[in-house]
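The instructor's notes for this session suggest beginning with a concrete chain rather than abstract definitions. Hand out the sequence below and ask the class to guess, before any prediction is shown, which regions might be ordered.
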Amino acid sequence: MKMGRCAVADAPGITIHMIARLREHKGLAPRGILSCREAGGGELSLVSKRKGLFALVFRERSGEEHMLPVPSWNAVPEDTLIHLSIGIGVLGRKLAMVRLNVNGRTLVETPLAVAVDPHAGWRERLGRAGSGRAAAADLNVYEVRRIDMFLGSLWEQRLRNVYAGRWSLPGAAIRGEPALSSAIAGAATVIVPPASRGASVVGWETVSPNVSPVWESA
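After discussion, reveal the predicted structure:
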């Protein structure tokens, strides 16, 4: 697979892939959609500020926030099925990379001058993030996968293609699971909340369009 000259390498951190449908933002209060929290440390959140306006927010342990707006002309789609992934990777002692991809488009990918523990245990939180109000009532989640590392451009592209094919999203290129490297396969976790355990589902799937409680991994 041909990658651009700005391809990003794998790194310590976390990547969350999610198939979901986000309802139209109504009202003025920000909505917290998804976050990755470092135990006792920072938090990377995807927040809907208002209709058509989104941002990635990284909050340091000290409380200082770094806001990375998603361009309004390239916003996160609402009221439609989407494949979304966010991730944060440790590049150096005081340097991290944060990224937001939606339906194969990179909406945010930028380094931040922040200190992140490369050995941190991360927890994902769906339906609520940062200080925004819960978006659980507006967010239908069908499948979630946590990878306990920051995926570089190559594996991120492969997983994007798989999800596009599985869920008939734009940009489908291949079908089925890619042949993951042993390191990535060992770090991947399909997240199944307690309400879904024992059901014949992959990740967090539901036929009902209204089952999306706030979920935080243990």
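Then share the key points. Residues 178 and 192 are 21 Å apart (CA to CA). Confidence is low (pLDDT under 50) at residues 1-5, 174-179, 192-218.
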